[in-house]
Automatic annotation (TrEMBL):
<keyword id="KW-0808">Transferase</keyword>
<feature type="domain" description="N-end rule aminoacyl transferase C-terminal">
    <location>
        <begin position="310"/>
        <end position="457"/>
    </location>
</feature>
<dbReference type="InterPro" id="IPR007472">
    <property type="entry name" value="N-end_Aminoacyl_Trfase_C"/>
</dbReference>
<dbReference type="InterPro" id="IPR030700">
    <property type="entry name" value="N-end_Aminoacyl_Trfase"/>
</dbReference>
<comment type="function">
    <text>Involved in the post-translational conjugation of arginine to the N-terminal aspartate or glutamate of a protein. This arginylation is required for degradation of the protein via the ubiquitin pathway.</text>
</comment>
<feature type="domain" description="N-end aminoacyl transferase N-terminal">
    <location>
        <begin position="23"/>
        <end position="95"/>
    </location>
</feature>
<dbReference type="Pfam" id="PF04377">
    <property type="entry name" value="ATE_C"/>
</dbReference>
<keyword id="KW-0833">Ubl conjugation pathway</keyword>
<dbReference type="InterPro" id="IPR007471">
    <property type="entry name" value="N-end_Aminoacyl_Trfase_N"/>
</dbReference>
<dbReference type="Pfam" id="PF04376">
    <property type="entry name" value="ATE_N"/>
</dbReference>
<keyword id="KW-0012">Acyltransferase</keyword>
<feature type="region of interest" description="Disordered">
    <location>
        <begin position="267"/>
        <end position="290"/>
    </location>
</feature>
<comment type="similarity">
    <text>Belongs to the R-transferase family.</text>
</comment>
<dbReference type="InterPro" id="IPR017137">
    <property type="entry name" value="Arg-tRNA-P_Trfase_1_euk"/>
</dbReference>
<dbReference type="InterPro" id="IPR016181">
    <property type="entry name" value="Acyl_CoA_acyltransferase"/>
</dbReference>
<feature type="compositionally biased region" description="Low complexity">
    <location>
        <begin position="276"/>
        <end position="290"/>
    </location>
</feature>
<protein>
    <recommendedName>
        <fullName>Arginyl-tRNA--protein transferase</fullName>
        <ecNumber>2.3.2.8</ecNumber>
    </recommendedName>
</protein>
């Protein structure tokens, strides 16, 4: 390796141990400080050391590194990854690609309030046309509009499952929309509007939720049991309204039913007849005037992590509208600390054609922001780390007006493709890391849809296929994912090896060779023993033992522990 290439890869990791941290949990919303993790602070970290930390269950937030104490924290978080070349997209993931392509081709026009699947938009257009035509089938036949309304409800159910509102393994029957006879209209609804159709799908959903909870299959039982027909129907109604307004229909919830009303009020005599559909209002524009067919250009730019005012403005909109953050909680300082600051020491490919550059992608290693632009407009930003073995996805924020494009799913597919494309240049670059998978949190289970994925065993740090891990996690949130017998044997063997240096070990944890920075000098703990007294030694040993446990032997001897 040339000296130039060597210097570009140089540097050392320097960390300060922050110890145990307890806080409230954003996943299970526990009122107590039930989230327990270990923290490190660093402003200098090599990409190789961070890769090794990822493979021991660590993640970073800015310059802060954290690792859940898996056996103690309320929501155990398992590192999840997949080998990019083995990835098989699901039908839904394929639809995400096609949806964006239709948007770029001008075939799918998105309005700010239309935050739903493109097939829902198509169905809603059919509903509008059917209602506007005034045509109906005979009373004993199913009207076409009822089929379309049923499809809209079914799609809303699926989105609630995908977002984690309902558990992913719930068995829900197809919805049924029925025409309401005039004799029943007063019982199912209030007010003077004309009630045309109704669905009771919320009731079988609640029954399915209870049945799922009784099986003890790992869903959030307490939350699921709180769902009533009223709350379920309200969730579905909210999802359906994201399709857009129907000129001749109003959707309301009453006594657990989803009801579809005429959007115009009628007199009591007209209500008694109740057999003719209202015509569409004349205030809506024709589809030919409201749709603008145009070609759009999607550009994806990879840039080094840095503060960008345009990105920050998009981040604010995303946090306010998608996560409902309070405006005062968002600031440039917090944004930089979370998504811009990075301790990773960048590695660039050398310009002299060094052979070792076969293991460095053209962009190099380090922290990046990947911008997605359509016709120059910034629509999404993916915050990622590119490391020797993987692309690690850290965060994504996107334009709330384009929620229907499923940009989170689309960016994940793009990042997987990026790994595949760059593996030809960097042979070690094989994996896509999706962050943490939390089986006890329904909203985090979507990550397992990227298959075939693997979870990291919290004891042996071996990768276990998700299909093998799932039955264990269905029984309890924390589980040793690798074979328990082999894990015990390996743990005993490791402990016996670590007991050899009794002078500098305690409880089987060898701390003799931990690398330490003291007043700018580098020395091992065994060398430090010569210059410190017993009182200082008793103070330092518990700190070094804890540090050694969470980072492992190899990293404790390679990274520099900053002693302050």
């Amino acid at each position: 390796m040339s000296s130039k290439a060597s210097s570009s890869r140089g540097g050392e990791s320097i960390v300060a141990d922050c110890g145990r941290n307890t806080s409230s949990c954003g996943y299970c919303k526990s009122p107590t400080s039930s989230s327990i993790s270990h923290g490190l602070w660093t402003e200098r970290l090599t990409v190789h050391d961070y890769q090794a930390l990822l493979d021991r269950g660590w993640r970073r937030s800015g310059c802060y590194l954290y690792k859940p104490e898996m056996a103690k924290t309320c929501c155990p978080s398992y590192t999840i990854r997949l080998r990019a070349n083995d990835f098989v997209p699901s039908k839904e993931q394929q639809r995400v690609r096609r949806r964006l392509e239709r948007f770029l081709d001008g075939e799918l026009d998105l309005k700010p309030r239309e935050r739903t699947e493109d097939q829902d938009v198509e169905v809603s257009e059919r509903v509008r046309k059917l209602l506007g035509s005034g045509k109906r089938e005979q009373n004993n036949e199913v009207e076409p509009v009822m089929k379309d309304l049923s499809e809209l409800i079914d799609n809303a159910v699926q989105r609630c499952i995908q977002s984690g509102e309902f558990p992913s393994n719930i068995q829900v029957p197809k919805s049924s929309v029925k025409k309401v006879l005039s004799a029943k209209r007063k019982k199912l609804a209030e007010g003077s509007e004309e009630l045309l159709y109704t669905s009771n799908i919320a009731f079988p959903i609640v029954a399915a939720l209870k049945q799922t909870s009784q099986k003890g299959d790992g869903s959030n039982n307490a939350e699921d049991n709180r769902l009533s027909p009223e709350t379920v129907s309200a969730k579905l109604s909210s999802e359906m309204k994201k399709v857009g307004e129907f000129p001749s229909l109003a959707i309301k919830v009453c006594k657990g039913h989803i009801n579809f009303f005429s959007a115009t009020q009628v007199t009591s005599s007209e209500r008694d007849q109740g057999e003719s559909l209202p015509s569409a209002t004349t205030t809506t524009k024709s589809s030919s005037n409201s749709l603008q067919v145009r070609k759009k250009k999607l550009e994806i730019h990879l840039k080094r992590s840095s503060f960008d005012p345009e990105e920050y403005e998009l981040y604010k909109r995303y946090q306010l509208r998608v996560h409902n953050d309070e405006p005062e909680s968002i600031s440039k300082t917090s944004y930089k600390r979370f998504l811009v600051d990075t301790p990773l020491i960048e590695v660039l490919p050398s310009s002299d054609g060094d052979d070792d550059d076969e293991n460095v992608p053209p962009c190099g290693f380090g922290s990046y922001h990947q911008q997605y632009r359509v016709d120059g407009r910034l629509i999404a930003v993916g915050v990622i780390d590119i490391l020797p073995k993987c692309l690690s996805s850290k965060y994504l924020f996107w334009d709330p007006d384009l929620a229907s494009l499923s940009l989170g799913n689309y960016s994940a597919l793009q990042e997987i493709d990026w790994v595949k494309q760059n593996q030809a240049r960097c042979s070690s670059l094989e994996y896509y890391y999706l962050g943490y998978y939390i089986h006890s949190c329904n909203k985090m289970r979507y990550k397992a849809a990227y298959r075939p994925s693997q979870l990291l065993c919290p004891l042996r740090y071996q990768w276990v296929p998700f299909e093998v891990a799932k039955p264990l996690l269905d029984k309890k949130p924390y589980s040793v994912l690798s074979d328990f017998t082999k894990a015990s044997e390996t743990l005993e063997m490791n402990n016996s090896d670590e007991d050899t240096d009794s002078d500098s070990s305690r409880n089987g944890i060898d701390i003799a060779n931990i690398l330490i920075s003291l007043n700018g000098a580098r020395l091992r703990y065994k060398d430090l023993l010569r210059i410190i007294n017993m009182a200082v030694r008793k103070q330092l040993e518990p700190m070094f033992i804890s540090y050694r446990k969470v980072v492992g032997a190899e990293l404790s001897e390679r990274m520099v522990y900053e002693l302050q």
